[in-house]
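Suppose you are handed a protein chain with no further information: no name, no annotation, nothing but its sequence. What can you learn? This example shows the usual starting point.
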Amino acid sequence: MQNNKKTDNNTVEFPLRLVRYLALAGIASRRKSFDIILSGKVKVNDIIVNDPSLMISKADRIKINGKTISLSSFVYIILNKPKGYVCTNSDPYAEKKAIDLIDIPGYRLFSVGRLDKDSTGLIIFTNDGKFSDRLMHPSNNILKTYEITVKNELSKSKIHEMLNGVLESGEMLKAISIKQKAPKKYFFILNEGKKREIRRLVKHANSKVISLNRISIGNLKLGNLKQGKWKYITPEEIL
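A reasonable first move is to predict its three-dimensional structure. Written in structure tokens, the prediction is:
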């Protein structure tokens, strides 16, 4: 395999390991791609390869079960953001940026929506602008679920108001669903996710958010991904 290294802001940096190639191509997660390679289903230049760490060049031809695999220039990543990290890439004063937790050179990634500095949980990074627009547009009804802890219990009357819409600072804030999990713990489901929307709704309900963790976006769930860790995903896992 030749060393054909090329870097571009929206493309992959070659050479790269075969297991990463399969993950970036959307075949499977890196762990599952590892198993696929070991099973003998992958050919590189028509030769069966069992080494997941084999370095691949841009000129190499990859096949799985006889089907040619092409590498997209787009990448999709889920991160479990810890508290204290900001999602913006451009804040020169931010000490901790969520993007710095993702170590894949050769891409210019941006977050799809944001989680504020004090919030944790699922955040998506990509370089696919059309996908980001589709995911964020309210008309596509991509629901987001948050697990929150509050200082004071939310009254039934205030929950009713939050479900019907609260006008605050010229914006209509509204939850699609609010369900109590335990004392002072709730699940909030939102459609749009305006800036600090849950915190503003809870403040309207005469309480305060103590912790806020996003656990799902669309069909994609945070699962057992540890804080500060990330993994590759495909658009189909969300929509």
